[in-house]
Amino acid sequence: MIKPLYSADCMSQNQGRNSYNKDGKVEFELVVKTIVESGWLNIAQKCPSPNFNQRPEDEISLLVIHNISLPPKQYGGAFVEDFFCNRLNANAHPYFAEICHLEVSSHLFIRRDGSIVQFVPFNQRAWHAGVSYYGGRDNCNDFSIGIEMEGCDDEAYSEAQYNSLQLATQAIMLAYPQISSDRITGHEFISPKRKTDPGRAFHWQRLFSSIKPKDSDLSS
Ligand SMILES: [Zn+2]
Predict the structure, then answer these.
(1) Is the Cβ–Cβ distance between 66 and 128 less than 8 Å?
(2) Residue 148 designated active-site
(3) Which 3 state secondary structure label does DSSP give 162?
(4) Closest CA to 143 of 207, 57, 41, 202
(5) What is the distance in A from the centroid of ligand 1 to the CA of 219?
């Protein structure tokens, strides 16, 4: 079971408590239905970011995995949430002064303990990929969903993170059928000379083997 953490800023926004049945299991069908209806993952802590805009077309056909940790390689603070909501304190760490002016976001952020934060509804365009290229098209933000794993390129991600990623991915694939398992990629592959995340520590097989194929995947 995923136990969301509640930070003071986001607690009032949380909707996740409605998504567990009496056994503490996630009501998966309700999770998918809520995504389709609202663009929000109801097991995530909602932490709305101002860094989004409308997708130029309504297409949602790619899932991009990233990593982030702030400060780099330090886990557990609220700095990623602060960064994606344009309130990172430039004085809190020397690195923050370099990045605090950036206006970026992702749809989801999965912490080391497996708790999930959502910044932007999936039907809106989050600002996670930057200059990028996939399948003959650039500007992957236009048609992708971005998931940030709390971590770095060379340190193993946690079991809890993979479990949450699997759950979120499976729900997203059902809500947005254009995201087939061959349209899940990493930032390092769509922005190759510029980005290295989620890096060699990310266990792609762990993700792909945990995703149930859809009928459309089996027939193709
Ligand atoms: Zn990235």
Answers:
(1) yes
(2) yes
(3) helix
(4) 57
(5) 32
* Rounded-to-integer distance, Cα 34 and Cα 195, Å: 32
Architecture of domain 11-212: 3-Layer(aba) Sandwich (3.40)
Q: What length does the chain have? A: 220
* Ligand 1 midpoint to CA 83 (Å): 14
Query: What distances in angstroms separate CA 199 from CA 87, 187, 208, one per listed residue?
Result: 27, 9, 16
- pTM exceeding the 0.70 threshold for the entire prediction: yes
Q: In the chain, where are the structural domains located?
A: 11-212
- 187 CA from centroid of ligand 1 (Å): 5
Contact 109, 67 (CB under 8 A): no
6: phi then psi, degrees, rounded to nearest 5: -120, 115
Contact status, residue 123 vs residue 38, Cβ threshold 8 Å: no
- Contact predicate 166/211, CB 8 Å: yes
Summarize pLDDT for 168-216 with one digit per residue, the tens: 999 999 999 999 999 999 999 999 999 999 999 999 999 999 887 655 5
- Say which residues have a Cβ less than 8 Å from residue 129's Cβ, sequence separation at least 6: 64, 139, 140, 141, 144, 146, 187, 190, 191
Tell me the pLDDT tens digit for each residue of 64-75.
Answer: 999 999 999 999
Closest CA to 78 of 115, 39, 127: 115
CB-based contact 69:208 (threshold 8 Å)? no
